[in-house]
């Protein structure tokens, strides 16, 4: 328990708190992933202010871009289909809309604000990916779903309310399923 709490403090203390991209890689390749995401953002997309750091969670890097993270993902999809060899270390690249401290009430408030963009005829799913937290996925899902008045669809939703918990910090997005780059999946198509 004490080791988990130390780990949570470390993660929240030293990573970018205003990140808007998460990049995953194989454990141990975090430094290479930082270089890759910065190369993609700076050299291919022209964002000279981009920054990226390790999170303290193995296999996860966070980045901040001055560009719209959804536009970044769209452009990286194009680059991936044209030049897949540019993606050597990335497994997934995920846009993030807001970052909050890992607190159930703050996560719920942020999710409900984003959920206002789910159209009346649209379906949604809540996906929680958590690392180094004592919160339970079902507690988070129950708290948010109880107040979202839209139809849930676990198999093929129109939108995904994505909650990425990394210790003391949580990134949240409302995305369409195609707005997460899954590099291996795309390379196999």
Write up what this structure looks like:
- The protein is an alpha+beta fold and about 190 residues long.
- The chain is built from six helices and ten strands; from the N terminus they run αβαββαββαβαββββα.
- The protein has helices at about 1-15, 30-45, 70-80, 105-115, 135-145, 185-189; strands at about 20-25, 50-55, 60-65, 90-95, 100, 125-130, 150, 160-165, 170-175, 180.
- A five-stranded antiparallel β-sheet has the order 2-3-1-4-10.
- A hairpin with a 2-residue loop joins strand 8 (about 160-165) and strand 9.
- Helix 4 (about 105-115) crosses helix 5.
- Mean pLDDT is about 90; it is low at about 1-15.
Rg for CA atoms: 16 Å
Order of helices and strands: HEHEEHEEHEHEEEEH
Low-confidence stretches: 1-14
The biggest sheet, with number of strands, parallel, antiparallel or mixed sense and barrel status, is: 5 strands, antiparallel
The number of E-state strands comes to 10
- Across the major sheet, the strand order is 2-3-1-4-10
Mean pLDDT: 90
| Percentage of residues in DSSP E strands | 25-35%
* Category from helices, strands and their pairing: alpha+beta
Shape by Cα distribution: globular
Helical residue percent band: 25-40%
Question: How far from one another are the termini?
Answer: 43 Å
Q: Count of DSSP helices?
A: 6
Write the layout of secondary structure elements.
Elements: H1 2-14, E1 21-24, H2 30-44, E2 51-54, E3 60-64, H3 69-82, E4 92-95, E5 98-101, H4 104-115, E6 123-131, H5 137-145, E7 151-152, E8 159-166, E9 169-175, E10 181-182, H6 183-188
Parallel strand pairs: 6-7, 6-8
Antiparallel strand pairs: 1-3, 1-4, 2-3, 4-10, 5-9, 8-9
